[in-house]
Amino acid sequence: MNNQFARVLFTIFVFALVLFTMWHSRMYRPSMDKVIIMDTVVTISYPGIKQKNVSQILVYMQRLSNMLDYYNKDSCLNKLNKEGKIDAGDECFDVLYEVLTMSKDAWSKSNGAFDPGYVNKLPIGRTHITRQKIVLAEGQVLDLSGIAKGFIVDKAVEKAVELGFPYVWINAGGEVKTYSQEGRNLLVGIRDPKHRTKAITHIYLKNESVATSGMYERGMHIVEPNGSALPSGIISASVVAKSCAVADAFATALIVKGKDFLDDLSRMGLPAMCIYVKDSSEREIANNLWKEKQV
Questions:
Q1: Which of 10, 113, 118, 203 is the 20 to 30 A CA-CA neighbour of 239?
Q2: Residue 43 pairs with which residues in a beta bridge?
Q3: Bridge partners of 181?
Q4: CB atoms < 10 A from the CB of 33, how many?
Q5: CB 14 within 8 A of CB 21
Q6: pTM of the model
Q7: What is the DSSP secondary-structure string of 83-148?
Q8: DSSP H/E element including 175
Q9: Distance of CA 282 to the CA centre of its chain
Q10: Contacts of 279 (CB under 8 A, 6+ apart)
Q11: Strand partners, 205
């Protein structure tokens, strides 16, 4: 009798375990949504169990885009460009303060290669930034296109964590950030400049970001801060960092400064690689930190 009862209990336990596994697999199976941010298709992958919450993230990303988009005449950035200053207490201030502080730091560390002030050739180093006020130099105009998407991706992942997402993966046209509660490695492909659907290499990210800037999608849209054409010959540059905004800014700087900047990025603790043209052929080069992340 006892043996029969034990077998019944064991059968019930196994059945319950199978049902739980099926439920868990279905609820945590990846779902995917897309949104347009700054003329870029942004893909967000997340567990199906959080589908009802993902709209909050998408709305949040749109809100940040509306604040930082240089090509949106009503954005907070263009309000700053027009008025030349913004005070603490303005609804735009905290976001602009954070992204401009990061931009100024990247400008300094890249020796001016990353510079949102290139528009009128008045570097962001001349922007006065305090916790009370942001003041542009006279005639200064800022364009945050080289860091804004990465910044928005960072903030979207922060929002996902705040909402209890066990994992999330966001790709904003080459600006990629991954997160998982367990800190798992995630395989990410870096696009081959010659092929839209092929990867030239793969790396592992663990709660990290990678940003890729390139000349192959939009042509010659990156220029030196002084406005002249780029001499580096780089057609694609990728940088890994904890922050997607940081990776975004330094990928732009790598294209501007050329492959010798790889060593500087290594000293900053940032894995990086680039593809450049020499003698009409494409060549790939990376620093040692990047090589350690490759598959």
A1: 118
A2: 34, 171
A3: none
A4: 14
A5: no
A6: 0.85
A7: HSEEEBTBTTHHHHHHHHHHHHHHHHHTTTSS-TTGGGT--GGG-EE-SSEEEPPTT-----TTTH
A8: strand 175-180
A9: 25
A10: none
A11: 186
On whether the CB atoms of residues 102 and 246 are closer than 8 A, the answer is yes
Query: Cβ neighbours of residue 254 under 8 Å, at least 6 residues apart?
Result: 213, 234, 237, 239, 261, 262, 265, 272, 274
pLDDT in tens, 197-236: 788 889 999 999 999 987 644 444 444 555 544 455 889 9
Looking at CATH, the fold of the domain delimited by 185-295 is given as T-fold (3.10.520)
Beta carbons within 10 angstroms of residue 43's beta carbon? 14
| Contact status, residue 262 vs residue 254, Cβ threshold 8 Å | yes
List, in order, residues 6 or more apart from 181 with CB less than 8 Å away. 166, 167
Tell me the per-residue pLDDT of 152-206, one tens digit each, with 9 for 90 and over.
999 999 999 999 999 999 999 999 999 999 888 888 999 888 777 788 889 999 9
Enumerate helices (H) and strands (E) in the chain, giving the number of each.
8, 13
CA distances, 15 to each of 4, 64, 187, 247, 291 (Å): 17, 47, 34, 48, 47
Are 116 and 147 contacting, i.e. CB atoms less than 8 angstroms apart? yes
CA distance 122 to 143: 11
Domain boundaries, the chain: 31-68+153-182, 71-135, 185-295
